[in-house]
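WARN no homologs supplied; continuing
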Amino acid sequence: MPPTPSPRLVELAQAHGVATEYWDWLGQHVAVSAPSIRAVLAALGVAAADDAEVEAALAEHADAPWRRTLQATVVARAGRSREVLVHVPAGSGVSLHAELEDGGRRSFTQLDRWVPDRVVDGVPVGQATFEVPADLPLGWHRLVADVDATPLDPTTLTSTLVVTPQRLELPEPVASQRVVGLMAQLYQVRSPGSWGVGDLRDLADLASWAAAAHDADFVLVNPLHAAEPVSPMEPSPYLPTTRRFVNPLYLRVEDVSEVASLDASGHRRMLDLAARGRALDAGERIDRDAAWAVKREALRLVHDAGLSGARAEAFAAYCEREGDGLLRFATWCALADVHGLPFTAWPEELQDPDGPAVAAFRTGHADEVDLHRWMQWLLEDQLAVAQREATAAGMSLGVVHDLAVGVHPVGADAWALGDALARGVTVGAPPDQFNQLGQNWSQPPWRPDRLAELGYAPFRDMVRTVLRDSGGIRVDHILGLFRLWWIPAGGTPADGTYVYYDEEALLGILVLEAQRAGAVVIGEDLGVVAPNVREVLTERGLLGTSILWFEWDGDRVRPPESYRDLCLSSVTVHDLPPTAGYLTLEHVAVREQLGLLTRPVEEERALEESAIGRVRAALESRGLLAPGADVDDTVVALHRWLAQTPSRMLAVSLPDIVGDRRAINQPGTNDEYPNWRLPLAGPDGMAVDLDDIRESPLADPLFDALRGR
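OK structure emitted
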């Protein structure tokens, strides 16, 4: 048995939000081993290798708040007052005020709260308590302490004050009625104009079709976050290099205004590149590297044509607005162009984004840096066009974006954000019913302590960018705003433990930015859920997620009436095969082939057939399915079941519309399965394009089913 933690190590872990025990998916109590706890604490910058270090770390944790005049970030809810503690040399006078986002100023009242002084580093320190009133406006403000003596640390005289809404005001029509939409992995979609990968023009056309032909209110797409700018490009949209910026692979080159200004030679070259790009649609697999090589050459050609006066001004304004974050990302991309990846293999002086070597590189490669900023500007424009066309066609929400749970361990964010991301651990999930070995997502987690010290700016900027020009955001594994499963480097998922986050801060900022964007927020809250998470989401006006195959009361199919109101409900999800594939046990066959089952395949198959049989029986009992019905009829009946739920949002998966049976992703695998590389296909496995989607015989029945017709 692995060594158990001492009581003092347990105390230290709990002080830093590290779980020392938990309940697994089978309801069994699990004690976290001492080595796992020490490794996770080390990733938080807490030395705990032996008893002496544990004692020193506990003492430092007790003194830490008293070393600061103000805590780094204060998050308050509108309509609620809260207290703020201020630490100053004992006997000093202090006052506190806020510099408001709109330029105003508010002074705060000191409360009568006496506490004993504390000696820190030989200096007596006193504590004053102030009240932040309930009537402060929403927004990002600045707290300022005025002390009449030299404070312990003058850099802590100011802090970030965020005032968040009590609850997200849902946009219409979600606030008052049900909406129906489409879920799609955009890269799977092909059209006569795409270059081997679905792009933002395809997104606009797909949304317009769904709205015009089926009264769809939204289209939920996979994360469009940026991947590597050089080969090999990570295929998973859920393992991006950054979550703030977008993958230029999704650009439709011909829609860039400057294409029209190419000279005759440039036009001939563009026609040749377009032909090469479109030829990639014939492949049985999505070849992102080949598509990006052609598209990048075309974009470089257009970039070199230059910008007109008005366009140049708009680009300059964009660069100024996005500031240092955009500049760092573009610099990382240019460095990758020159030095390759991973960045950990670059010369040491280039691994510091704030160092003189990086500044010199940026100056010497200004055109390459400009190219990457320019592509992000184009992406913002084409995303805005997609949203405008979707709403113009009749969608009430339009495009709903997906926010991945994390980033690549050696990607742009890992380089640019420094110790805001934890080292020596990765994020994953403990074992559960569908992934019985657990999951390692190979992503570095946010450090909760550093996020607070940075005023949550990296999280805010990321959320703002994803919400721009969208009707909503789906937060993958929103449980990660409460706690994340940290796995020590070299360990298995079962060696991990939970690390807790400041949910009030993270959810509050998410609600604030979504309300300002007029967007809906959907939290993917599947899997092992911490107590009260779903109640908190409901309280804050955030929708949860329900997948029909996961909805059970013991061994009984959960009746549709018991689904949540504030919820996006669907039959399937991207980590499961399409519904036709699930009904034919595609998921069992794949997991058997890949050696991912923890029990005999006959037993697994029997259990799944039994579960599917109970679902069929439930459908038949409500008159939604005739006995002996075929796969297509069963798929439609499952969507009729969703229509009987109270869920505010319902969605049909694009693969279900065309009858695809292959899973786009098999959790727990990498190259063993062609994850994220399969183009959309029909039931025969043959690739389909946008025209085939429009003519699919299942489109009408499935959208009608969601409306209870």
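Residues 58 and 89 are 23 Å apart (CA to CA).
OK
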